[in-house]
Amino acid sequence: MLVLLVVAVNAYRDQNQDWSRPVMVLLHPVNADGQAATQRYIQQLSMQQLQDAQQYLQAAAAQYRGQPVYFYFQLGREIKQLPPKVPEQGSMLDIMLWSLKFRYYAWQQSESSDGAPSVRLYLNYYDPQSVHVLKHSTALEKGRIGSVNLFASNKQSEQNKIVLVHELLHAFGASDKYDLNSGQPLYPQGYAEPEKQPLYPQQYAEIMAGHIALSANKSKMAENLAQTRLNIATAIEIGWKK
């Protein structure tokens, strides 16, 4: 009964974020391909490189809540073991088993020195010279953990931030807002400005869509966070707007 109570309390907490408190985001880098170039990239990581991501989230929160939410990113220790891979085209049972494995992995990797972060993200870095296309990243609201696939390249750092913020918002309940087959933003929830006239081309990408709609069936990927917006549909999902 005690175990069930702890699980229930944690599930309620994970789905009912108290936005009046600071959000602590612990980032664990992982050398996902074992390359020396990837290791060199990880060694030069600093939180200064993510300041604009923190500011982006704080400004978006203030826009909808009327008051800021303070996000603090902390660079954790490097993790040597890769998170379990998300099953590709798996059944519901496969996804459930992966979810349990991922939560067990996060429990195994945690240490008392980590403190009590609001979210843990495992940043799986790949050398773009050896891996040209990244697998889909994912994050769980229940457990507040995420496995984020990124390129170990300064040239990709701006788009890395888009992916990081996107997955972080998943951990607070935001949903994807693009067609899973085509990648095209869904209207209206996947548009930054769904009421814009004329509707096309859109100027920004909605952060949970990642692409700027140029027409009803054509879009382009946002290049940096400045080219994205967090719209009201996402704000409602994560509890910034009623």
Explain this structure to me?
- The protein has 242 residues and is of the alpha/beta class.
- The protein has a 5-stranded mixed β-sheet, sandwiched between helices.
- A hairpin with a 4-residue loop joins strand 4 and strand 5.
- It is globular, with a radius of gyration of 18 Å.
- It starts with a helix and ends with a helix.
- The N terminus is likely disordered.
Low-confidence stretches: 2-9
* N- to C-terminal distance: 34 Å
What is the global morphology?
globular
Using only CA atoms, what is the Rg? 18 Å
Structural class: alpha/beta
Secondary structure tally: strands: 9
The percent range for strand residues is 15-25%
Mean pLDDT metric: 93
Please give the count of helices: 6
Spatial strand arrangement across the major sheet: 2-1-3-5-4
Fraction of residues in H or I helices: 25-40%
Main β-sheet description: 5 strands, mixed
H and E string = HEHHEHEEEHEEEEH
